[in-house]
Amino acid sequence: MTEPDRGAGTTRSVLRPLTVVEQSAGGKRDACDVQVAVDAALQETFKLASLRDGQEVVIQAVLEGRDALFLAPTGGGKSLCYQLPAVVLHQRRRAFSVVICPLLALMQNQLDTLHRLGIKATSISSTQTVSHNRDALQQIAGEALDSDELCMIYVTPETAASHRFLDALEKAYRRKAIGLFAVDEAHNIHVWGHDFRKKYRQLGELKQRFPRVPILAVSATATKKVREDIRSQLQIPGALQIVRSFNRPNIQYDVRYLFGDVDRLRLRTVVEVVTAHAGSCGLVYARTRELVELVTLRLNAAGIKVGAYHAGMSTNKRFEVQSKWQSGELPVVVATLAFGMGIDKGDVRYIVHADMPATVDAFYQQSGRAGRDLKPAVSILLFSADDVRRLFFTIDSAIYASDTLHERAVQELEDIRQMFTQNVCRRKLLLAHFGEALDLTKRNFVTE
Hints:
Elements: H1 31-45, H2 55-63, E1 68-71, H3 80-93, E2 96-100, H4 104-116, E3 121-123, H5 130-141, E4 152-155, H6 157-160, H7 163-174, E5 178-183, H8 188-191, H9 205-209, E6 215-219, H10 224-234, E7 240-243, E8 251-257, H11 262-276, E9 281-285, H12 289-301, E10 306-309, H13 315-327, E11 332-335, E12 348-353, H14 360-367, E13 377-383, H15 385-397, H16 403-419, H17 426-433
Parallel strand pairs: 1-6, 1-7, 2-4, 2-5, 3-4, 5-6, 8-13, 9-11, 9-12, 10-11, 12-13
Helix pairs in contact: 1-3, 2-3, 5-7, 11-12, 15-16
Protein name: ATP-dependent DNA helicase
Pfam family, one: RecQ_Zn_bind
GO cellular component, one term: cytoplasm
């Protein structure tokens, strides 16, 4: 059974006692009652004994009606920071919370977990039936008999920007039934919002139309520039920022350099790595569908039970592969970049990057899907000069909305190239990318 993610780390904010306040109908502040409700939800609903660093401050801010931006490493407990307030807000004033997710797989994973915990949550998406989506909109608008039962609703940015959804929210807002807007994987506002998912750039309309509803944005990968873009696009310039350390001390970062017949060596190396980790759960990432299929065939030929996952497969097939991987039936999945985003599976022992990601952020995200249980894990990158040349060619051949976006893509690729061609500790370079210095006095990690 999966549980809300609850990783470890240290916060840059100073924690203070939770003195959450909420304005009741009579106008009285009832901080003590809310504290009791938070503790009860944590222990009775989520089956957790205590909050981790940073979570307390975020939950407090949200229940005070403040906007917030929470940055924590993968496995850092970000989802709990909107799920727990959603439960409290629903219990206290029958309000529902809206969670905006980038991927249907991530959405379904969280819904499955919430349902096991007995939390009433649903989604509006293309994978649902027309009648289901219609009923969900009626619940939001308060036009269904069971409207008060809804605790959380999950949608994509495209649904969140649709007229039908916004019209339903208007009706809910008038009856003060919206508790919170949560934007999961919020760095995608910056990464994807400029080109193929432009609806991300329209999420700021939520603050315009529903100013009294707090917005919480969470992410595992956001530089200072990206954080500024998130706050700007969501129109929450005064949002409280809680930034935890990006260091994942239990993950070792390893690089295998490929020379000569790169394509042949790539496949052979992947098989060797996966074979060396036989009996462990792992992920192999590849940038293209073609490489996903090729690596999958080679692993199958080596007698390794493996599944493939990419956008060219049907939705049902992708869900099947994800489900089998999460249950342990499939120990290894070969996938394109988005697989695993936000999925809470603690026992992933290794990640293989069959070719180089195009950005440091993508490398960090993919690597961070290992070791969420805080036990030792490894991220192995297969590096070749051929991959770098292909990526630069792809960028130069692509059509960008502006010269600025093209220049950003080139710079991001140069950043990751330098990370794996310098004789410097990769952990130090990785943390520096996010504006964090490596604390060498804390020898609780491997220096690569």
